[in-house]
Here is the input.
Amino acid sequence: MASRKTIVLLIIFAGLLAYVYFFEIQGEKRKKAQKEQQELLLDFDSAHVTGLSFLPGEIVIKKDSTQWSIISPVQSEADKSTIENILDAFTWLKKGRLVSDIPDDFRKFGLNPYQYALVIERTANSDTLMVGNANLDNTSVFYRKSGDNSVYLVPTTLKKSVTKTLYDLRDKSILKFERGKINKILIKNYGETFSCYRDENQQWWLDHPIAALCDEDKIDDMLNLLHDSIIKKFQSEKSNFLNKYGLNNPWLTVSLTDSSNQQKQLLIGKKNQQEYFSRAESKPQIFLIDSSLVAELDVSLFDLRDKTIVSFEQDSVMEILLQYPDFTFHCIRDSAKQWHITQPDSGLAKSWKISSFFYDLQDIKVAEFVDASNPPDVFYGFDQPEIKLILKGKDTILSDLVFGKILQDKIALKNNLTNKIYLVKKQVKNKLSLKTEEFIEK
Here is the structure.
């Protein structure tokens, strides 16, 4: 008997819990959500928006599938992120404070007819938001919606959304491409042609006018700037009077080819103050781009070449030999990875000093490439070197460098492993002029 009463009480208790959860807790949540929805300036799903019109500028934008396009007053791609930011603003903009619902008051609020307006077209219907004057401290603006006489005061965010210019709304990409898919770059400037390609190991190489490794950082900088930079001003919607802008015979042309063999080409003409007249071959518009981008693209053969002298993993080095005219510095690493100096003194070496020396060595860059047809070793002083440096691994020579004469403000350097000659900054000699007492542990 007692157990039956317990079961009944449990059923009643469960029912009460269900009532509280569904009607009180969930009910309050629904009421709160409904109230917040009613307070929104506009209630719509941005996915259903098919078009926008900005007045009085008569800028009309339509959506085709996922692509936004400006169809008036020019025909061009729209800036997708700008459009999405405008629509996102309406997901949180509230109606604001009601100030009047009398049509005769429209004029004093700047709403007869309006100062600015935005028409939002959707699949089933549309709304027109009309924006009028700002309040006295310019923190809010008056607005009303088509079909509603109510005038509200809302933050100036609304005005920022509806007063976009044609430049704000249109796509300002100079060239559209995926950086990771570009595998060829062709640059023509001042009659010279430079051609680079990326191999299957993602390594960039020059193949014209010479075969050589590319400077990876330079290639990355060019591609990043071309991808991220924007058009500063649209000069003309048609490719007319190209001679006027220096684009009939551009002094600089950059062509990008991707993995599907699609090509993007940028033509650069005359300078206009701090900008250059340009056009993309696939588009009719003539536009201006910033001189900083042009400076990055106006490259020489030296700019494009890899200027690394030596490249090695520090952990792979087992022996260091530095020969100077008056003494020899020799250091070896044991199985416990401890460095030991054997010449000119003997003792345990400071590991951090060895690491610092390696960094200085890897940081040496070519200041000038020397043609192989230039004079022999004696001309550069390699027969009586200032410094001779050899790094050895377990079973191989990792680096074999000879530093010769100082020529003006540079010092000659020969890489015996590649048989190439370079000129580097003369300050390099100071960094490699080691003093044993600085390396040996006391």
